[in-house]
Amino acid sequence: MKAEFACALALFLPLMLPVSASARQAAPATPSKPAASPTPPATAGAKDKITATTPPADLARIALMAHGGDKFRSAKTIIVRGSVDFYLPNSVQALPGEFLIITAGERFRQEVRAPPFFNATVIHDGTRLYSSVRLFSVPPPNKFGMIMLTQFDQRGYSVTALPDQKKQRAFRIADPDGNVTNFYVDPATGRVMSYEVVYNGATYTVAHEKFKELGGVLLPYSFKQSFVTPQGTFYADYEVKQAAVNQPISDNMFTIPTPPSANKKP
Length: 266
Prior knowledge:
The chain is mainly β and 266 residues long. The chain contains 3 helices and 12 strands. Strand 1 and strand 2 form a beta hairpin. The longest helix has 11 residues, at 56-66.
């Protein structure tokens, strides 16, 4: 049961990696060690200075630009690999592991390895979700999280103000179906420092700590995650070791495995 809790927490990670919904590639998905540049000192820009009166729609636009603007919005694929430490409720003992996330549009593949505690593979082919372990109800990666920032100005989406938090400006993006993500941005840089999702009674929060620019896209390389459930609050610390943007990915990486029973002849 503990292993399943930890796996369920890990599954929230794809929400931070939006890529173009039109991404369809055909090549092996093997991320190489990136030549990521140090975190740039860029700010939101003189014309886009965030103040206490900046409207929420402008906050969303500035945040999008801070993370790469059109390059962020139109990225076809993002691959990240690294280490993760899980913390169960009321525990100070970390469960160390490694993760791999491959995202292409509304498709993703995630692998979490923390032997002997758990091994998990999760695949979303754009329509169906597959997991090698029993899951909690996890927010769909194409409905919540950073992907909402890339869609804020599309028809049917709305951006509204939220109370500021810890000197960070806040706003909410809602899609046409009523799915919402709350964003908190650094007024000096426009970067999203954290975002929050409430889904099926559970609260998911991701807090970004360190960033690196790769291929014109600003990616979080160190971040914390909390997952509040009736069973308690789970925590995880992530460190990205390797990343790639717009690297070709084979379609078979998102193929849902056929259940063994489906292969049996009647």
